[in-house]
Amino acid sequence: MIDIHSHILPGVDDGAQSIEESIKMAEAAVADGIHTIIATPHHQNGKYNNYKNNITIQVAELNRHLSDYDIPLTVLPGQETRIHGEMLDGIRNDEILTLNGTGNYVFVEFPSDTVPRYASKLLFDIQLEGYQPIIVHPERNRHIIQHPDTLYALVKKGAYTQITAASLCGRFGKNIQKFTHQLIEANLTHLIASDAHNTTSRGFCMKDAYRELRKNYGQSMVYLFAENAEYVAEGQAVASDVPQHVKKKKFLGLF
What we know:
This protein has helices at residues 19-31, 52-68, 87-92, 119-128, 142-146, 149-156, 165-168, 174-185, 206-217, 219-234; strands at residues 2-6, 36-39, 42-43, 74-77, 80-82, 105-109, 132-136, 160-164, 191-193. The longest helix has 17 residues, at 52-68. Helices cover 40% and strands 14% of the residues. Strand 1 (2-6), helix 1 and strand 2 form a beta-alpha-beta unit. Helix 9 packs across helix 10. The chain has a single domain (2-234), classed as TIM Barrel. The chain is an alpha/beta fold. The protein has a six-stranded parallel beta sheet with strand order 3-5-6-7-8-9. It holds the Pfam family CpsB_CapC. Keywords: Hydrolase, Protein phosphatase. It is an enzyme of class 3 (hydrolase). Belongs to the metallo-dependent hydrolases superfamily. CpsB/CapC family.
């Protein structure tokens, strides 16, 4: 498997805090069936800044350690950038890193409780610049849960989205798990990744997530999500179906 979202780089954000923790995460990733992982440290989220050149250097160093430990995992460079008004300038100034540094896919993270008013225009402008935004973990965004048509409008205009494996497995609670399924059923998500931060509270559960996909939607959905991860890593076009509106359901006690 390819995992396109992780915080495996040591000491750069709220993920692995040391090279020892990174090694443990790498071993856990391999045990979960992952052979390639994109390191996507937080950027411009108000607490952490991780720029393109630094990430590239740190990824090379981590791969050297993995080779020394004979761990069969390849780490690729990436970045999880919080949406901000100057994001387009960051792309133009070569501060923002595309996933694997190839192709044109860029992660876009929203604040946990809202979607900025300027999001639609900015995501469209990013596309006009020749890049493809991927909205990360929309199933955990309070505004999107309450107003799923917000996500529908962004996807309809060309954005892709990536759900978290732990959300699909129910590790963020039953309500978020149900909403994650609704996004899949409405063709409002295209990728699945671990967003792993450690080996304990925020670990990998990619095997379990794909098992959940297979149980509910069949092997064809497993292929769709797995192949899309490969396409992103290789900078190729992601497969998608026509987005639909999420059917309204009450999420009692979610927030």
